[in-house]
Structure of tRNA (guanine-N(1)-)-methyltransferase:
Amino acid sequence: MVIQVVTLFPEMFSGVFDMSMVKRARLTGRLDLRVIPLRAFGVGIHRQTDDYPFGGAVGMLLRCDVVVPAVEWCMMHEKTPARVILTSPQGRSFTQRLALHLSRQDHLIIVAGHYEGIDERVRLLLQADEVSIGDYVLTGGELPAMVMVDAVSRLLPGVLGSDDSAKDDSFSRADGWLEGPQYTRPVQYRNLSVPDVLRQGNHRAIAEFREEMARQRTRARRPDLVSD
Ligand SMILES: C[S@@+](CC[C@H](N)C(=O)[O-])C[C@H]1O[C@@H](n2cnc3c(N)ncnc32)[C@H](O)[C@@H]1O
């Protein structure tokens, strides 16, 4: 899959895109990830990318005659049709389900907004989806773009150690429960010990224990996810 991230701040992405699962996704060849500097598409001798909003609102907006050519450039340089995502606090929520759906696409272009946002004509002309990572306002779309790339890359086949590992994660499990508590060594730490059942090798008992813990945890923390 190809992901192109269009941003005013390409330097923010080094580090995050060069480590851990995103790095692994790139090394396995499953993910071709490029960061496209929006400034290169700026207008005039100062390569201006933003301007004042009409109607006298505060702040600046990214210009449509900068963002649209940048995204069209991305489209032109890839063979497969792209799905365009504008990061926006007003967009549909980025969920595990959406991450899974996006991981099945061949080509994504994610546009990181900045300032007070992006001229509305970008969304209309590019038929882009707006996606939000939560009900709060960040300074720019760079962190949301990183969040989306991370969540999508680990779902690409062969990226996690086992393709089954993601299936047990919260929000991915078939039963809809959150994952329950997990333990590793040491067996005893301060006055807390690992539950005996997890160390006795009875796989059925372990599965039942884990399921019960997952139910209890979900009811306590996210009753909105519980249907029974
Ligand atoms: C300061 S915000 C603009 C907020 C905008 N004025 C509004 O009220 O909806 C600047 C940019 O950050 C990004 N952004 C901020 N919060 C976000 C969120 N929760 N999810 C996704 N993108 C976000 C978007 O790209 C947005 O264009």
